[in-house]
Amino acid sequence: MPPSSKRLIQDIRRLEERLRCHWARQAPPLSHHLRGYRQDWLKTFEVPMREATASELTSALLAADPVLVGDFHSLRRPRRSLGTLVRNMPEGESPALLLELLPAHFQATAKEVLNDPKYQLVNGRPARDVYESPLRAAAKRNGIVVGAWIDASPQKRDLAAAKQWSQLRLSKPNYRWLLFFGNWHLADSHLPESIRNVGGNPAVLHQSPEPIWEKAGHPKKEQLIRLGAGHWAWLHTPPLAQWASELQDAPQDDSELCAEIAEEMVDSLASGFAECLGLPAPQQPPSVWPADQWPAFWSTLPNRERLAFSEETAPLQMVLHPHLPAIWTPANPLLNSLVEAGGHCLLTEHPLSQQTSPEARLLARAFRRVWARFLNPFLRETSLTELGSRLFPESKADWNLGWDSILKAWEDRQMPFLEPQQRVLAYEYFGGLFGASLVQNGNLDHQILKEILDGEWMGFNWPTLVATMRAA
Questions:
Q1: Please, what's the largest Cα pairwise distance for the chain?
Q2: pLDDT exceeds 70 at position 468
Q3: What is the pTM assigned to this prediction?
Q4: What is the pLDDT of residues 15-60, one digit of tens each?
Q5: Is the previous residue joined to 66 through a cis bond, with omega within 30 degrees of 0?
Q6: What is the rounded CA–CA span in Å between residue 317 and residue 333?
Q7: Cα–Cα distance between 113 and 139 in angstroms, integer?
Q8: Angle between helices 335-347 and 255-276 (to 10 degrees)
Q9: What's the mean per-residue pLDDT of the chain?
Q10: 68, 124, 160, 381: least buried by Cβ within 10 Å?
Q11: What is the mean pLDDT of residues 346-359?
Q12: pLDDT score of 469 more than 70
């Protein structure tokens, strides 16, 4: 890797650490009681650690009774990962999920919870929406779901959950139990110790704990870490994503307040990216439009975008105004969307955003994706079909069937002859792939990114890019 590229990565790492500190300070302060509870959790990671294999973890989970899994309540990825654990259980076994956020002594089959929105978590959200992945996996194995929440201190909830599990284990001996609780409950002296005191032999799986992320040195791929006796860590989500969710989760029922919080976060990202490149911070602040303002946002778009989208049917993912620092989002944006919005706001103050050629549109999309890839190394590209269905939910088109015509238009540089939806989809999809490939090349540096912003980058090779897209 060239020295200039290493300097860029070092600058981005410093930016990420500053953002984490800044966003952590913005989170509601902890009470003295909770600070001590969190401190116990931090002590759990003050042990020697080593990288582990999937087979080692699988063996440990199979030998455990029960398995304790960490949940960062406002993030989707930990819940999807719980679904993965359920799907990977041995054939013939039925799972029992003990969920912290369901009321204590609630009990139903996974299929019942999955099919009925009346089953709600203590925060008011339907359980089937929040835990769809593990519920689907459990329903296929005739699994059950039990609640553990009581209105008490975290310590009392640990004791109550352990007692409840010990009783359930006796009354339902033919299930494999997985307890899904907030991260801090998994400190060795908290829920694990309570489980051991009632005869259990728990294995504890922490999901992307921030202290281990620090020790692992910003891993570029998912990792499994062994942490002393009975504790494991699964690194799959950067801590910055957790802080982004934490800040936006509290006012979830107030769309205007959520939009204001997102605007502040996007502004801090855009200013950080400018600082990385030695550029002045953007002068125009971002504006984030909440879900119910889609028709008004749609009306501000240039004609080519208005023709692609429907005023009546809002997309299912973030949409950016091509030339203005304006962002519409259907829900509280996750880290990847916030980062791309920050890159977009920086972009709108430079010449590239005012250019409309296929090369410029593609580069603008790639520029946003570069930052998302740097700040979330676990990021995966969305398939063409999924992206099309999220951008244009009213369309019944099978976007894979349109692949040949889209690619042919790219090869011949005949983008104006594509349908409006095809053009938007092509820029989003191919630009995302292009941005990812720029990061993977390992040659990006400050100068290249500034040249891209100014529309002066000479490294754009259309035939090579088309070949890469065809291979993808």
A1: 70
A2: no
A3: 0.88
A4: 999 999 888 888 778 788 888 899 999 999 999 999 999 999 999 9
A5: yes
A6: 9
A7: 9
A8: 60
A9: 89
A10: 124
A11: 90
A12: no
Residue type, 39: Q
CA 312 to CA 306: how far, in whole Å?
Answer: 11
**Whether 239 contacts 206, CB under 8 Å:** no
Tokens 């103050």 -> residue = 349
Share of the chain above pLDDT 90, in %: 60
pLDDT digits (tens, 9 = 90+) for 414-458: 666 778 898 898 889 889 988 998 998 888 999 999 999 998 887
Residue 290: what are its φ and ψ, rounded to 5°?
-75, 175
Q: Tell me the β-bridge partners of 94.
A: 175
Total residue count of the chain as it appears in this document: 472
Q: What is the identity of the amino acid at 160?
A: A
Q: How far apart are the first and last CA of the chain?
A: 24
Q: Is 374:240 a contact under the CB 8 Å cutoff?
A: no
